Please model this.
Amino acid sequence: MKVPWPVRSVIAGTAGTAALSLAYVVERKLRPRHHGPLDYDDSLVPGQIVASIMHLPHVTAREDRDLGWALRWSYGSAFGLWHGILRRRFGEPRASLIFFGTLMSATLTLFPVLGRTPPPSKWAPDVRATCLLTHAAYVGAVAAVDDQVGRLGR
Model:
């Protein structure tokens, strides 16, 4: 059975989100002395952005974390659709390069604007590296799963 591209792309986006989450787990294992968030995606900031947009008063840190996880898994899955559109239009590897550029542009602009973080030029080098590598893991997984699920039913 051939899987329609939108379904395939959402599945790929979900796999990418899992890869991004796993990248944080691996980095924590490699950096056992580091305490706290590894970058802004790994912090309470995404949940705080959601709470702010939804005008939720008095949100606890735990609720910020939960909102951040909900945001990560929803937009991470849905962003797979953008990759699917790019893949149909440009093919690989251009689709993944454009996709990575989109993600990084959004991350590097939306955190300072909506999350009131410092501009990326002020982020610590390890925070910038984590941000780049976790998003690269996301993009790589999205592309690989999109390709493999697309082969089903052929």
